[in-house]
C-alpha cells in the first residue's frame, strides 16, 4: 500500500487513495493533522505529535518543532543529552503517520509519496528521502507541495492549460507558486515567498496588542514562560476570530487570570503590516513567470493561516476575485499526495505528471561599466542565469575588455539579486588570459551551466585565441562522489549549445533565409522582420520561449509560402 504524506513545518498528515478518491487518515487521537513535534518524555521515551506539542511550553529544552526548516543542513537539534539530525526527527513523525495508516488499514504500509516545498534544493530533497527510509518507507517519489495542492483540486483532469496560483500561508512560511499543466506535464513556473511570515507572526501581532493593554506585564517582557503562555492564548483567539467578530484573550500566569477581548477589526488593524507583506511574493512570482493575474484560471488557498478571513479578504482584493476554497487548506497538500499515490499504484498517467525545477536565485558575474563621463564603476552584477529559470539550464553571455592591453580578465561569480555585487554571495573566481589589444576589442564568452543539484559550471572562452578556462562550483554541504559529478557534468554538456546552433532552430533560420531570397517587396520585408524577431528570441536563450516562437515562425512562413501558389 502506498500512502501520500504532507510532511509540514507545523503539522503533517497522511492520506490514501481508496475507492476512487483521496482521503485522510486520522491519527490515534482521531485528528487528521499531527503536529510535527518530537519531545523527550520524562521516562526517556520519545513522544511524537500532539503529546510532544503540548510539552513545548512546559519542557522547551526537551521538545523540538519546526525542524523541517533545518532539513538538508548539518545542524543538529539537542533533545535532553542527545543530538538529533533533522531527518531523524522527521523520520519519527513519518513513522508515527505510517503506524496510524497501518492501524486503520489493517495492512502494512511500505511506500509513500512525500511532499516537499517547490524551492527545496537537491540536498533538502535527499534529506527528506532519507527521513522516509529511516521510517521504513520506500519513498516512491517526492512531490512539490503546490503541485500536490493542485492535484487535490483535480487540476490533472482538466483539459485547459491555464496557469494557476497556489497561495500557501502556513505557520511560519509563505509560499506562492505558479503552476501550469501542459500536455499532462505539471510544471512549477515560478515560486517566490517569505520564509519569515506565517500564522506565528499574526500571533505576535495579537500579543503586542494585548501587551499594550496590560502595562502591568511590561516588567516581565522577557519572561519565556509568559511569552509562551501568551502565544498559546493568541493562537486560540486568532482561530476563534476566524469564525466570530470578537473573541476572548485569556491566560493564567503566576496564578493570576488575565482576560480581555479582541474585535476582528482591531485584529485586522494590528495585522495590516503583515497583510501588506503578502503582496510582494505574489507580484514577484507573476513577474518572473511572465503571467498576468487576469490569465490565472484559479487562486488556490493552502495552509492553515489562509483560514483567517482577513487573509482571504486580502487575497480577494489583490486578485479582484474570490479564491478557490473548495478543498480544506490544511488538507489539500496531503490529499494531493494521496492522489499521486493513487496514480502511482494504478500505474496510470503518473509519468505524465512531472515537475521541472527552477533556479531559486540569480547567478552572474561582477562587471565594470563606464558612465557617460567615461568613469569606470566596478562591482556591478551582470546576471547570466536569472532566478526562476527552468533548470538544468545553460546560458552564455559575451563580455569585452575594459582596459587597453589588459592581459587577463578576472571573473567573479556571484549568486543573488542585488545590483551591487557586495550584497550578493561570492561563489568563486576564474582568471582568463587574453591577448593585449585596445579596450573593447577582445571578447570573452562566459557560459553558466547549472543543474538541480546545485552544480554550476562556468566556462570562459576567448573566441579570438580559443583559450578556455573552466570553474566548477559545488553546493558546499553536498559531497558527491567523483562519478556522480562526472555524470552530472555529462548531463549539462548536452545543454551547452547556443540555441542558434541547435538543429531545429538552424533549420528554421535557413528556411527563412531561403524564403527571403524567393520573395520581393512587402513579403520580403515581413520575412526580414520575422528573422530579426526570432534571432532576438534566440539570444535570450530560453528554450521554452524559443520553442513556442519557432512554431509561430513556421506557421507564418507556411502562410507566406502558401500565398505564393494561390
Ligand atoms: P500549516 O503549517 O499549514 O499546518 O498551518 C498552521 C498555521 O495555520 C498555524 O499558524 C495556525 O495558527 C493556522 N491556523 C490553523 N487553523 C486556523 C484557523 N481556523 N484560523 C486561523 N489560523 C489557523
Derived from helix and strand composition plus strand pairing, the structural class reads: alpha+beta
Number of domains as seen in the coordinates: 4
State the share of residues found in helices, binned by percent. Answer: 25-40%
Number of strands: 27
| Fraction of residues in β-strands | 25-35%
* N- to C-terminal distance: 63 Å
- Residue stretches low in confidence (pLDDT < 50, at least 5 long) are 349-355
Instruction: List the ions, cofactors and other small molecules found in this model.
Output: adenosine monophosphate
Number of helices: 14
What would you note in describing this structure?
- The protein is α+β, with helices and mostly antiparallel strands and 566 residues long.
- The protein has 4 domains: 2-197 and 278-358, Nucleotidyltransferase, domain 5; 199-273, ATPase, substrate binding domain, subdomain 4 (Actin, Chain A, domain 4, Alpha-Beta Complex), CATH 3.90.640.10; 363-495, Substrate Binding Domain Of DNAk, Chain A, domain 1 (Sandwich); 501-564.
- The protein is 35% helix and 29% strand.
- The chain is built from 14 helices and 27 strands.
- Strands 1, 2, 3, 4, 10 and 11 form a 6-stranded mixed β-sheet that branches. Strands 14-13-12-17 form a 4-stranded mixed β-sheet, with helices on both faces.
- A hairpin with a 2-residue loop joins strand 15 and strand 16.
- The longest helix is centred in the last third of the chain and has 22 residues, at 543-564.
- Bound molecules: adenosine monophosphate.
- The site of adenosine monophosphate has 19 residues, from helix 5 and helix 6.
